[in-house]
Amino acid sequence: MTEIAVLGYGTVGSGVVKVIETNHDSILAKAGVDLHVKYVLDLRDFPGDPIQERIVHDYDTIVNDPEIAVVVEVMGGTEPAFTFSKRALAAGKSICTSNKELVARHGTELQELARQNHASYLFEASCGGGIPIIRPLRTSLTADVIDEITGILNGTTNYILSKMIDEGLEFDDVLKDAQQKGYAERNPEADVEGHDACRKIAILSSLAYGKRVDFTDIYTEGITRITSADIRYARAMKKTIKLLAYSGRKGDQVTAMVAPYLVDREDPLYGVSGVFNAIFVHGNMLGDAMFYGQGAGREATASAVAADVVEAARALGTGVVSEWDPEKQVLTDVSSTRKAFFVRVQGDASQIAKMEAVFGPVSLVEAGVDGEYGFTTRVMTEAEYQACASQTEGILGMIRIREKGEAC
Ligand code: HSE
After folding, report:
1. Angle formed at CA 57 by CA 10 and CA 307, multiple of 5 degrees
2. Which one of the listed residues 38, 163, 200, 242 is annotated catalytic?
3. Low-confidence stretches of the chain (pLDDT beneath 50)
4. Active-site residue, 200 included
5. Of 56, 200, 258, 365, which residue is the least packed, with the fewest Cβ within 10 Å?
6. Torsion of the alpha carbons at 35, 40, 46 and 48, rounded to the nearest 10
7. Cα of 38 to ligand 1 centre, how many Å?
8. Strand pairing of 2-7 and 35-41?
9. CATH assignment of 2-129+298-328, given 3.40.50.720, 3.40.50.150, 3.40.190.10, 3.30.565.10?
10. What are the pLDDT digits (tens) for 365-381?
11. Top-level CATH class of 137-294?
């Protein structure tokens, strides 16, 4: 029997207990591991819940118990999760986590600690909820040179944007709904300002390109500036708006960015709605591949954590860790990346010639919004766009237009 401790009995933690207990027999039959949750660490008590008899409040009970082989860290945040993870790994216990903040900040050193102690450090659920993406990048795609990852990596913002677009709802109302459904982070700023997607693309890029990508180096914009007017223009262009987390490699140059993009109907990411996530990967031999599934929510995320528990249980005594170089990957400045831009300006469409004089050829977008008009630019670098925008008065907003294979 493999004894497990779960740190945190919140949305994901309770889901992990449910998956391991509901699917115990099928896991045993398929993977040959007999999983048992011995402890759940939480500050709270859960009277009436069958878990109550296994609730502990003192982490020492877990870390000092030699029977515990795998620790599921689903507390979120950096501390005390970081300290608890280090203590477990130092004691030779494996860690399975959904904590993208911790993996993005300290994953490199936690993997090294796991390696030294012949333990596993696994984090499938840190990116894309229930979608298998870490394991494919770590194993199936190792023969490929990956040159692009573009993901819808945050279920909350995708849910909000989908509802705003499909049902004409306002941002604040949909956010509350997402929080109630258990998709959003405790601090919704992490979702809506793009920080959550930023951490996830940093983790995926570190795996794909083989060097540590520091999430604090990634240019990040969230969705808080997207308005109902933007949505009207998007509809007029037969496009939709998605928060995309992008990274690309050309030779030894890597660039990464998180921002809302206009996405065309022909694009495979167009139809990814609601809480679903998708990760588009391009490899030099593989070509295009897309991974799709539920990106947030209790059972989906717990299913990915439980799969890591199975892998860790099968690798007791040897351990499994991802391989990326602790040396930092220097990112190319996003100002040299090329794409077209959609711009909204105060005034009326008769002034489009003035825009053409600054931006070069543009295409007018008519959406019938009072007191303003919109246009799309030619493909240009971010730096060129900024130079043109700085010469233009009355800009109300800009959204990038997704270009597959956006160049470094
Ligand atoms: N808040 C995250 C999201 C949860 O909405 O995607 C899953 O990481």
Report:
1. 45
2. 200
3. 408
4. yes
5. 56
6. 30
7. 27
8. parallel
9. 3.40.50.720
10. 999 999 999 999 999 99
11. alpha beta
